[in-house]
Amino acid sequence: MADKVDVNAKWDACLDLTVRRFVYSSLAGAFGGLLLFRTPVTRWASVALGAGVGIGSAYTECSRIFDESPANLASLKSPTAPAHEGGQE
Prior knowledge:
With about 90 residues, the protein is mainly α. It has helices spanning about 1-35, 40-65, 75. The model has no long low-confidence stretch (mean pLDDT about 80).
């Protein structure tokens, strides 16, 4: 029963975190759009960018809460080539 309560608490924390970050980032995007842009399209684009940043940061934090980190992009990159040893050619 304690595991179920723990999972419910994690979901509640993630839902709260996601809603707050979505709203705050959208408001920041709207405010920035009002200050920086003239056309409605670019203003809405700044709101969408802010919402995307908020949802992305909430996803990252929720994956940490559930102890399942997102795919590590560094492990997907090819290893760097060893440095060339020797003098100039």
